[in-house]
Each structure stands twice: as structure tokens, then as C-alpha cells.
Specification:
By secondary structure, the chain is an alpha+beta fold. It is built from 7 helices and 6 strands; from the N terminus they run H-E-E-E-E-H-H-H-H-H-E-E-H. The protein has 3 domains: about 5-55, Wheat Germ Agglutinin (Isolectin 2), domain 1, CATH 3.30.60; about 60-115, no CATH class; about 115-174, no CATH class. About 55% of the residues lie in helices and about 15% in strands. It has a two-stranded antiparallel sheet with strand order 1-2. A two-stranded antiparallel sheet has the order 3-4. It has a two-stranded antiparallel ribbon with strand order 5-6. Helix 2 packs across helix 3. The protein is elongated.
Length: about 170
């Protein structure tokens, strides 16, 4: 006699701690690439209680977990795959409503805190648009995709043309 598993039973999971049955969704179970069906065996409530108990029993555990997690992600985001993942996540966030609002708020704050820099950027942008300025290749490597770098923001039309890579390097050493 073969066991018949209903379609509904495939979409549920019994918590291994409390024994309750929940729908197999991110609302009730944390995701895990390493577990069958992509979810852990404990429901979120039980998982949180287990975590709190560990932290109560061993106060150093919380600090270790925090430090390990931070170090792990720092290393991960330096890898090629990590850079791509981070870039895509940032792009998704920037295209969301919340991301756009945060970006606009950040830009307004920067413009308010750096009026001289902002004015210099506007002057260069207008000079490029009117044809008074012509974008030059990077002074260091010759890349045609260059940016205007101001050594002195009080002289907005005196700029060095640098590619993104070399522009970042110059700012790192300032």
C-alpha cells in the first residue's frame, strides 16, 4: 500500500521544536539554501527563542556572532561575486520608492552642506552643455570616459580631467 501525500501536505512543514504545522512560506520559516525545500526546520518563533537563549547562556556569543558576520560580509563583498551581488542589491534599492526618497534626501543634504562644490559642479555642467568646455580624456590613462576634478572649488573652471578610477584615487589621497 503506497502512501498518498496530498498537495497541501507538500506546502506545509512541522516545526521541529514546537511541533506545530505551518505553511512553508518565508512568513513562518527562515530561508536556507542548505535545507530541503529551501527553509529551516524550526519556525521563526522557535528560532528566535533559541537565539535569545544562546545569548543569555553565553553573553560573548552575541558579540562573536556580530563580529563574525561583519567580518564574513566584508570579505565576501571584496570578491568578484560579492561585488556583483552588492551592486545588484544597491541598484534594486535605488530603483525602489524608498531608495529614491533616500537618494533625493541625501543629495539635498549634500548640496546644503557643500554649496561651493555644488556651484562648481553646476558651472562645469553648464559650460559643457553650452560648448564652452569640451570633455578631455583622462590625464593619466587617456580614457575618454572622464570626469572633471576640482583642485580648488573657488576656481570652478580650472579642472583636471580624470577617469572614474583615477578620480577616486586622487580623492583617496587628499
Amino acid at each position: 500500500m503506497s502512501k498518498q501525500i496530498s498537495h497541501n501536505a507538500c506546502n506545509t512543514r512541522r516545526c521541529s521544536v514546537c511541533g506545530r504545522v505551518f505553511p512553508l512560506t518565508p512568513e513562518y520559516f527562515y530561508r536556507s539554501k542548505h535545507k530541503p525545500k529551501g527553509f529551516v526546520y524550526e519556525c521563526k518563533e522557535c528560532r528566535k527563542q533559541i537565539q535569545k537563549q544562546r545569548e543569555r547562556e553565553n553573553p560573548a556569543y552575541k558579540e562573536w556572532r556580530k563580529r563574525y558576520s561583519r567580518e564574513y560580509w566584508k570579505k565576501y563583498y571584496k570578491t568578484e561575486k560579492g561585488k556583483i551581488v552588492h551592486y545588484l542589491a544597491q541598484k534594486r534599492y535605488n530603483n525602489s520608492d524608498k531608495g529614491r526618497v533616500a537618494l533625493l534626501k541625501s543629495r539635498r543634504k549634500w548640496r546644503k552642506n557643500n554649496p561651493e562644490k555644488y556651484a562648481a559642479h553646476i558651472i562645469v555642467t553648464n559650460a559643457l552643455a553650452s560648448g564652452k568646455f569640451v570633455r578631455q580624456p583622462c590625464e593619466i590613462c587617456g580614457n575618454k570616459n572622464s570626469q572633471a576634478h576640482h583642485e580648488d572649488y573657488s576656481k570652478p573652471l580650472v579642472v583636471r580631467w580624470l577617469c572614474d578610477k583615477h578620480h577616486r584615487e586622487v580623492h583617496r589621497h587628499i
